[in-house]
Design goal:
- It contains five helices and five strands; from the N terminus they run αααβββββαα.
- Strands 4-3-2-1-5 form a five-stranded antiparallel beta sheet.
- The radius of gyration is 45 Å and the shape is elongated.
Length: 197
């Protein structure tokens, strides 16, 4: 009768969990069976070993389930933090409209990851697209004064393209002794002013 009472209590307690029995409930049931077994007909070794094996398997499955849940929470947290500072488009369940903007904050509410998008609180599952960043036009520099204007250095005298009139002027000033040298260097026919050669 006490075993039945424990079973009834466990059933009532586990009714909100789809009839699943946790390892603590299984251990309580096993201890109750051992405590109230009939001394004249004790529990067989096979039954005890079988129940202990079931308990061990249940404990391992529970540990695996907890590990998977922890891994899932970690993956969702990493996914949420990777959206921080990015432009997203999400569904706002409060008004049924889409909201678009930058994710400025990430926080937890009732074991659920929440994000603040353009001042609107949405869930991680409400985000359905990540938008590219806005393209901002580069500022155009404005020259405030003559000294701020971009300037290029004037080429050196030997790098400038020679002009025939300039070469002729140089020859006229320096004399005809440099004529052959200038012709070979510049490739122009040099003729001094007032000289027909």
């Amino acid at each position: 009768q006490q075993v039945d009472a424990v079973n009834a209590k466990l059933k009532h307690k586990e009714s909100g969990q789809k009839g699943e029995m946790g390892k603590d409930a299984f251990l309580k049931l096993l201890v109750t069976q051992l405590r109230h077994q009939d001394p004249t007909q004790p529990m067989q070794d096979r039954e005890f070993i079988s129940q202990m094996a079931q308990f061990s398997a249940l404990e391992q499955m529970t540990n695996v389930s907890n590990s998977m849940n922890s891994l899932n929470r970690s993956a969702r947290s990493n996914e949420a933090y990777s959206l921080l500072g990015k432009r997203v488009e999400a569904f706002n369940p409060a008004n049924g409209r889409a909201v678009e903007g930058e994710v400025s904050r990430i926080f937890y509410r009732e074991n659920d990851i929440r994000l603040l998008v353009n001042g609107t609180e949405v869930g991680l599952s409400d985000i359905h697209s990540v938008l590219p960043p806005e393209q901002k036009a580069a500022p155009v520099p404005v020259a405030d004064s003559y000294h701020d204007r971009p300037r290029t250095a004037a080429p050196a005298l030997h790098e400038r393209e020679p002009r025939p009139d300039a070469v002729a002027h140089i020859v006229d000033r320096q004399g005809m002794g440099e004529r052959n040298a200038l012709e070979s260097k510049t490739g122009f026919a040099v003729k001094a002013y007032g000289n027909n050669q």
